[in-house]
C-alpha cells in the first residue's frame, strides 16, 4: 500500500475507473449477445430492436474508450449485415 496521500487517492480512483469500465464492457457484451440470440432464433423484428439498443451501447463504449472506434464500427457493421441477411432469408 502506498504511503503518499496522492498515491492512495490515485489507487482509489483507478479502482473506481476499473469497476466502471468492467461494467460498461459487460453491458455492451450482454446487448451484443441479445442480438446474436435473436439472429439465431430467426426473429427479424426482435433482432432489429436488439440491434438498435446494442449499437447505442457499442458506440457509447467506443466513446468512453472501453473499445476502439474501429472495433466498434466493425462490430456494428457485422451485426447489421447479419440482421439484413436474416430479413432476406
Quick structural gist:
It contains three helices and no strands.
Please write out the topology.
Elements: H1 5-41, H2 44-63, H3 69-88
Helix pairs in contact: 1-2, 1-3, 2-3
Mean pLDDT: 96
Radius of gyration, taken over Cα atoms and rounded to an integer in Å: 18 Å
Helix content: over 70%
Query: Structural class of the helix and strand makeup?
Result: mainly alpha
Residue fraction in strands = under 5%
CATH architecture: Up-down Bundle
- What is the assigned CATH homologous superfamily? Ribosomal protein S20
Which regions are unreliable across 5 or more consecutive residues at pLDDT < 50?
none
Order of helices and strands: HHH
CATH topology: Methane Monooxygenase Hydroxylase, Chain G, domain 1
Compute the number of strand runs: 0
Q: Overall 3D geometry?
A: elongated
Distance between the termini: 59 Å
CATH class: Mainly Alpha
Folded structure, characterized:
With 89 residues, this protein is mainly alpha-helical. The chain has a single domain, classed as Methane Monooxygenase Hydroxylase, Chain G, domain 1 (Up-down Bundle), CATH 1.20.58.110. α1 packs antiparallel against α2.
